[in-house]
Amino acid sequence: MKVLSFIVFDASEARRAGTGKEEFLAAFGDIEADVFSYSTIGLKPADFLLWFRAGSPEAIQNSVAKILKTEIGKNLRIRDSFLAFTRESVYVKKHDSQEQAVDGQREKYLIVYPFVKTVEWYLLPFEERQKLMNEHIVAGKKFPQVKQILGYSFGIDDQEFTVVYETNELEGFQDLVKALRETQSRKYTLRDTPIYLGIKKSMKEIVDSIL
């Protein structure tokens, strides 16, 4: 099991302060978690998104704390965050690298959002849910260029799942979303917003765009 945390930052105050770039960047070299950075400038009312990946919640907490102790960190505002664990799916016996792409090369675009099913979904017999999920899985397999990660957030965050997609081209991703909207399992979706789209950039590139 791995712990995943996606944190969206507003850097308006850091932009006004305009100092501490070197200290901030150095902090990323001394943290316990793996971290991937994405720019959200112009895509949402936020500046960047950090994806933390670690073996425990404590490792993520310690990593974020070190970043927030810097001069820039003190001037950041957390706009949103999603916490999840990676777990084995009850609907898929063995994931491939497209379905649960936690490791490996990161793609240009990251899409992440919280996901909540209706009560009616969980009251369906398992066999019926499996049938509906099989249709959902088949639809996703038609778009191998889009990688997915399903994080389990039950009991540790407000949502039930944290859904993550990675791709190098957004047109195909939109086609995937449209195809999934047409599956029967869609009627059991209670909430799947807010959606955050980020463009993968180094932390230095992001800081240079902010300060």
Verbal overview:
The chain is an alpha+beta fold. The chain folds into two domains: 3-85, Apc35880, domain 1 (Alpha-Beta Plaits, 2-Layer Sandwich), CATH 3.30.70; 109-197, Alpha-Beta Plaits (2-Layer Sandwich). The protein has eight helices and nine strands. It has helices at 12-17, 21-27, 57-68, 71-74, 119-123, 126-141, 170-181, 203-210, and strands at 3-10, 34-39, 48-54, 77-85, 109-117, 147-152, 161-167, 189-191, 196-200. Strands 1, 2, 3, 4, 5, 6, 7, 8 and 9 form a nine-stranded antiparallel beta sheet that branches. The chain starts with a strand and ends with a helix. The model has no long low-confidence stretch (mean pLDDT 94).
Structural domains: how many: 2
Percentage of residues in DSSP E strands: 25-35%
User: Which consecutive residue ranges, at least 5 long each, have pLDDT under 50?
Assistant: none
Largest sheet: 9 strands, antiparallel
The beta-strand count equals 9
| CATH architectural category of the largest domain | 2-Layer Sandwich
